[in-house]
Amino acid sequence: MIDSSAFICYNPDSQSGSSIEKRDLNMRLVKCQLTDTEQVYNFYRKVVKHLDDTVNYPKWDDGHPSKDGVETAVRRGEQYICTDSDHIVGALMLSEDPEGYYEAGEWSCELDPGEYLTIHLFAVHPDMPRTGIGSFMLKECIRIARDRGYKAIRLDTVPDNHPANGLYLKHGFTYAGTKDLKRNIPNIPLFNLYELNL
């Protein structure tokens, strides 16, 4: 059984300026099983609540990610979780479907559908910022894509999602334009596109 509850110890007297006690993490990125669906959905709910209480960079809301969407991703073998021991510390979806009009991208090379993977719903435990979880998850996505013979990883972000934009650029992704992906989301008319050729 995986535990998605908060488990990090807080140290308000820390001299480092961080509220989180530093400790080594024993992380793994694993494909979700159907029995994990409820806990993964609850993890995303916790992330959305944190975003609502702070800065909602990706503009997620109570309906996104949806429980049905998470379950569908699990059934397709596309939903992953990052665990530290038996605790969920991150989650993402890895799919061949970009779920939008990626033909608009200013890509460095032309690839057919099925030749690249797309990262969706990338989230880190809200109590664990700047602990290397996002970087670990991204490196594992790159390893998985290479091992499976894909030619690239592509993804999109909300233009004002500065933490995500910075993370992808830090790990070698290149900007491929800010485009209308025809998703018909009124408060997000445009998305930043990024690619990493493998």
What pattern of helices and strands is seen along the backbone?
Answer: EHHEEEHEHEE
Broad CATH class:
Alpha Beta
Uncertain spans = 1-22
Shape: globular
Specify Rg, calculated over alpha carbons: 17 Å
What does the secondary structure layout of this molecule look like, with pairings?
Elements: E1 27-31, H1 37-53, H2 67-75, E2 79-84, E3 87-95, E4 116-124, H3 133-147, E5 152-157, H4 162-170, E6 174-179, E7 191-197
Parallel strand pairs: 4-5
Antiparallel strand pairs: 1-2, 2-3, 3-4, 5-7, 6-7
Descriptive report:
With 198 residues, this protein is an alpha+beta fold. It has a single domain (27-197), classed as Gcn5-related N-acetyltransferase (GNAT) (Aminopeptidase, 3-Layer(aba) Sandwich), CATH 3.40.630. Helices cover 25% and strands 24% of the residues. The chain has a seven-stranded mixed sheet, with helices on both faces. The radius of gyration is 17 Å and the shape is globular.
